[in-house]
User: Fold this.
Amino acid sequence: MVIGFHHVHLEYKDQVALQDASFTVENGEFLCLTGPSGAGKSSILRLISMDAQPTKGEVIVRGILASKMIRRKIPILRREIGFVFQDFRLLEDRTIEANVEFPQLVVGIGKTQMKKNVMRVLTQVGLWEKRHRFPRQLSGGEQQRVAIARAMVNSPKILLADEPTGNLDPETAQEIINLLFRINDGGTCVVFSTHDHQIVKTFGQRVIVVDDGQIISDIKRTRATDRNYSLADRMYHPTAGKPTRESETMHA
Assistant:
């Protein structure tokens, strides 16, 4: 178990954000959190990152109990967690390369290793050749891929993605989700929040539905077929050809 929620309540002043939430996430799992805006999805992500503490109950992340966590040590835990947001949150005055370098500067990675790590993740997301550009020179989908590269540069054990496709068109959103699957296949636990029902229907492996601060359902399923996943992977890859008629039918 890499994440555990045990009868968790979370309140902000007089507002109840979560009520009696219980679930566990295994190492390397891909979890989709879904529900309407304000349902409690972001609160769950905040609790995982220990940006918030439960009012009641217990949150466990990587074997660490939130109730026992010393505040000054939270940044150490967060080195094992990558973050991706809907609005990208890139540094507009820095190049793509510098944006991806930034998390490594914070933890004191050496310059030689830093360059290798940046090359690795920017190649993974297909943007190494654009490393000297600035965020404003990229499309929305490319900016989100930079944000994912930045989140993954320190090889976190957990990746939290909060509505990462919310500002993207459907085709670009699919590319981002396929990229998250590739990252998950590398062993990283991915927790992905979305209110997009089509994304959940098409890609959800394990889906937790949250509404009004409560977990309504928790359903596990396998990917539709290996063939479908392989097809999605090829559609993401920068060198892939155009989708076949079969792929258009499958994703219609």
User: Anything to note?
Assistant: The CA atoms of residues 71 and 219 lie 34 Å apart. The beta strands are 3-12, 15-25, 30-34, 56-61, 64-65, 81-85, 158-162, 189-194, 206-211, 214-220.
